[in-house]
Amino acid sequence: MYGQSYPGAPTATSTPVHPLLMGARIKITRSFIIGGGKGAEGGNGGASSDAEAEGPPAVTAAGDAAVAAPRPHASWRRGRGALRGSPLARSFAEKPLLDLGVGINLDVDQQQIQPVARIKIKDLVSIKAAPLGLLKISRSIPLGPVALKVRYELPLAHARHFWEPPARLMVRLDNAVGSGVHLTPGGLELDEQVLRFGSAVSLRASGAVLFPRQLPLEEGEPPLRLQLHRLSLRSIW
To answer: What does the alpha-carbon distance between residue 195 and residue 186 come to, in Å, rounded to a whole number?
Structure first.
């Protein structure tokens, strides 16, 4: 999910990588925002510099208060307020309509710096022109206390055979409130956590705690391994 695994992808180097950084990618982009929901980061027509990380954004207390505030008069307003009360609905509404981004990507496994160019439409569609052409379609569907996340990726070079590899369809369950912690066959995965410094700077990180694949452990093998997938620092002005 985090590495390039389809034909045409750059070959990984044989230089050993620290286990904590295996699979990590550090991406720094300059984003130009066109059209955004109320409270969207960067506003309408703004720009931001960030290291991009996927995952549900944090829900602020201010956002909860705004949704909880009573709506006067017609019942349809109350219905809309209830819809906006959903964390997933709020996060979708706050995403910009169009996000144009350029920058660089540091792939720790391949030890390469690659150019990045992409277009995002809300949280639904992302088209990447560099380092490799890629179409990504994703959607989160709330199912009570959890959310079903469906994601489809298609390398543009293989668009004529979109139903077979290297195209991939991924489905997983996430905590609907946005904690992003879930159990995988390899261990415990933390999708994304956000630490905010004021209103303009945010730090995002995702990683995993990997369980041993066999017991008893081999000599010198740790019982648990930490793995950093993504680390980002975003500033908006």
So the answer is: 26
Q: Which of 101, 97, 133 lies closest to 28 in space, CA to CA?
A: 101
Residue 103 burial (CB count, 10 A): 19
Sequence spans of domains, the chain: 25-236
Looking at residue 9, the DSSP 8-state letter turns out to be S
* DSSP E strands, the chain: 25-36, 47-50, 96-107, 112-121, 125-130, 134-143, 146-155, 168-175, 181-184, 187-197, 201-210, 225-236
Q: At what angle do helices 75-85 and 87-94 cross, to 10 degrees?
A: 90
Name the token pair of 74. Answer: 């017609």
Both structure tokens of 119: 């277009």
* Winning range, highest mean pLDDT, from 95-109, 122-136, 191-205: 122-136
